[in-house]
Amino acid sequence: MTTDPAYVADLATQMATRRPDLLALAEDELKAFRAFKATVAAFIHNPAIAHDIRTNLARDLGLPAPTPEKTHG
Predict the structure, then answer these.
(1) What is the domain extent for residue 48?
(2) Neighbouring C-beta atoms of residue 44, cutoff 10 Å
(3) Count of domains observed in the chain
(4) Which of 14, 37, 59, 68 is 20 to 30 Å apart from 20, CA to CA?
């Protein structure tokens, strides 16, 4: 698989010109994925949810573990 910027740019131009419908579908999928990722990140960093649950979810998804909350006392 090549990662030559000129080659990639040429493919992107071809895609936009020949199949704008597929490009729109890909953009919609990317938008949905980003929203899902933001939801997961918010869950993992929500201190109202038990730390062990958030830590295990992060581990299962291959994400960094949340920082433990500081206790006051």
Answers:
(1) 26-73
(2) 18
(3) 1
(4) 37
Q: How far apart are the first and last CA of the chain?
A: 56
Residue in the structure block whose two tokens are 């493919």: 11
Q: How far apart are CA 15 and CA 1, in angstroms?
A: 18
Q: Which two tokens stand for residue 47?
A: 């201190």
The whole-angstrom separation of Cα 63 and Cα 12 is 30
> Which residue, among 46, 45, 47, has the nearest Cα to 63 in the 3D structure?
45
How far, in Å, CA of 41 to CA of 67, rounded? Answer: 12
**Rg of the chain on CA atoms, in Å:** 20
